[in-house]
Structures
1.
Amino acid sequence: MDAWQTVIVLTLMAGMAMPMGAWLARVECIPIDWLENELRHGIIAFGGGALLSAVALVLVPDSLPALGIATATGCFVAGGLAFMALDIALNRSGTSASQLAAMLADFVPEALALGAAFAHGSSGSLLLAGLMALQNLPEGFNAYHELRSTTPYSSRRLIGLFFAMAWLGPLAGLGGFLWLAPYPTAVAMIMLFAAGGILYSVFQDLAPQARLERHWGPPLGAVLGFALGLIGHMLLV
């Protein structure tokens, strides 16, 4: 398989985790209320852990060698500010799709970075692809619940929408592979921008939703999500 074909496969697999998460949310039916509530919050926390592992194990360490302190810090903070601005705009417009917007806002830059990193032969590209899938599955799960409860869209239409969005991954991945690979500084800036946005999303959207009064299982989901990223990192490095 050629390198560009591998990029398409990896980014598509990561993207297809979004409709898979939405499908799981659709078929989920646990008759015990407390257990269903615990599971949903645990999945949210798991996604937060996977996102943090992507930031800590791939996006930040792979980008810092190509940038100076001022540029690296500026890109990281700019990512957080951009996600905050998106949140504010969605809130003012009354759009109930913050989880969906956050999912796309980190998926597309990550796919760009993955394509460019794969062109350089970076071992972190495989880990990033796996972490993208790990985070997209619970994000798709949560975004489906958010949209299903606040919009008139049918389950079939929502899952079809998520399926269509999954193809943004190969498009962005090919763009990174073909056009960004000769510019490692630009790739590093995109990775840090995405990292700042992801960190904002974890604490703005995921962490508050993961908390349950007098329940201690959901935070363990965050630990497990990060642990899977750690295992992948140790196997590839």
2.
Amino acid sequence: MNDKELLPWLEKATSGDESAFQFVYQATHQDVYRTVAFLVYNKQDIEDIVNEVYMRMWRSFHTYDPNRPFRYWLHGIIVRQVQDWKRKAWRRVRLFERKRQMTCEQFEWTDKAVLQSEMQHELFSLVRQLSYKLRVVVILRYFHDYALEEIADMLQIPVGTAKSRHHMALKELRKRFALTGGDVYVH
């Protein structure tokens, strides 16, 4: 469902219509879940962050500008929620001096259609190895097709930084892919 089809439902949800919000939730949940899952590996954390995204969306509808794409606004909420979660997780680690934070649970996909071919699976595993700052740029650029300028705006960083991270991510992916014996050029 595209943004234009969602607009009447968004307007109703903005005025507090819970059934309209439920419709928006159903129309966007799979996209939100997959985006968070690309950025966070622990399944329980994914569920918690997705719930937080929708709570923040409900509280923030009044800030949505219907002249801008809804999914762009929604992906901005997702990125900020993941960043908040990462910041809170880091604080917990420091406060409780836990070392277990650094070991992530193995991620299990619930949507098998996302990664159908071995090549996609291999590339995804390489993307997962990137640092968060590089990974989020790759996910927003290639999974959601945002321009680097839009990514910079969403992440609240200079465009040059977004371009630099994009370049470093591709360079790192090429290097890692070559180490696995891959013969496909990542561009």
3.
Amino acid sequence: MPHRPPTHLQDTALRYFHEVVQCGSVSAASLRLHVASSAVSRQISGLEAQLGTALFERHARGMQPTAAGQILAELARRISLDAEQAIDAIHALDSLRAGLVRIATSDAFANELLPQACVAFQRRHPGLRFEVSMVPTLQVSAKLLAGEADIGLRFSMSPLKNIAVVHRQSAPVLAVLPPGHVLARQASLTLAELARHPLALPPAETAIRQMIDLACSRQGLQLDPVLTTNHAKTLLNFALHGGGVTVSSEVGVRHMLAAGSLVARPLTDAGLDLRDIEVQTLAGRQLPAAAQAFLGLLVQELQAVPSPR
């Protein structure tokens, strides 16, 4: 049907539309909005009439946005984030007296690096609050895309659509072991050398394990870890208490290296250096003042790499 190009989109209609996208149904959206289902339906129908296209595919089990609906959902999400930023800036009055910094991160950064950065920043700006979500690596960027985090901190090996990388640094896989371990005498190690000792590794679905498994596959090497866990601190404590050898990035074990309780050695197997640490934000988004300021401190903390022992 022919239609006139709309000159504007109503804020209420977009807000209701965004809730339906988030909830997957009109009834669930109406509950969250505290309005009648009929009011939500009218706003959706009005948008579809205004744009001259269907915004949802309606199924018995819910509503899924069409291609046009996905485009509009992106606009609605950005408007919501921009409004949140404006409110945060007004409340903080650009003085960092108040505000919330939302960070999504994977396990390796949540144990030491992020808490230390939050403490350092909060001492300078006592009115600020932090919300740190520890999720599997692949879900970090999803939190940014959903508008549920301001800053993402994760390991990555490939670019992602609609994600801006504010900072990147190499994060090769290192062997981590106690200072008195026989392998600690060597300047570098190989996976074959690690395989001759009790070994703790992350599970097969993690990026670091996939890198290790690929390197082993190229060599026809079989690893038989005595401990498998997706918790980075458990792996490090396994080595700390004399259980054997594990693997980590430098940033994940930095505090223990500085204390001298563990040592790290580079692994020379091909492919174990093809991983980066990325500090991510949503592409095209202007961060709230508090998040932007914390971003600078976080990058400084990441770059402060001590010399490995």
